[in-house]
Amino acid sequence: MAGEWEHVPDTLRFGITFGQQIFTPENTDATGPLPSERPYAAWLYLGLGVIADHGSQLDTWVLNLGIVGPSAKGEQVQNELHRLIGSDKARGWDNQLRDEVGVQLLYDHRWRNVWQRRMNGLGLDLSPHVGF
C-alpha cells in the first residue's frame, strides 16, 4: 500500500585493510630503555571488515590480526623514512617490545547526516558514532 513503510534491505560491503602503526618515545636519541616514556613498538596487521548500510545508519565490524615487535618491521620503516626526508635516525629500537600476536575486534555504529548544511559549494554534516 502507498504510504506504508517499505523495508529496504541492508546493503553489505566487505573490505580488507593492511596497515602498520609505529610508536616511539619522545626522546628518540636515547639508546637505553626509557621507563617513563612510551616504548618502541610497531603493529603490523591485516584486517577484514563488514559494513551493513541501513540507509541512515551504518554498522561496521572489523577483525584485525597482526603482530607487535621486531617482526612488524617498525625500525626498518621508520629509519628508512627518516633517511629519505633527512631526519635523524631513531636510536632506541633495540628496546622495542618483543614479538606477540595481536587480535582486535572493532565495532562502530554511525548515524549518518543527522544535521547537514551547504554553504558556498562546501558541505558540512554531523554523523555521531559509538563503538568499541
Write the topology of this structure.
Layout: E1 11-23, E2 41-53, E3 57-68, H1 74-85, E4 100-111, E5 115-119, E6 122-126, E7 129-131
Antiparallel strand pairs: 1-2, 2-3, 3-4, 4-7, 5-6
Question: Mean pLDDT, as a whole number?
Answer: 92
| Share of helical residues | under 10%
String of helices and strands: EEEHEEEE
Main beta-sheet strand count, sense and barrel state:
5 strands, antiparallel
User: Structural class per helix/strand content?
Assistant: mainly beta
Distance between the termini: 40 Å
SS elements, strand count? 7
Unreliable spans are none
Name the beta content range: over 45%
Q: Strand order, biggest sheet? A: 1-2-3-4-7
- DSSP helical segment count: 1
- Anisotropy-based shape: elongated
**Nearest-angstrom radius of gyration?**
22 Å
For this entry, give a set of tags:
about 130 residues, mainly beta, 5-stranded antiparallel β-sheet, two-stranded antiparallel ribbon, 1 helix, 7 strands
What is the compact description of this entry?
The protein has one helix and seven strands; from the N terminus they run βββαββββ. With 132 residues, the chain is mainly beta.
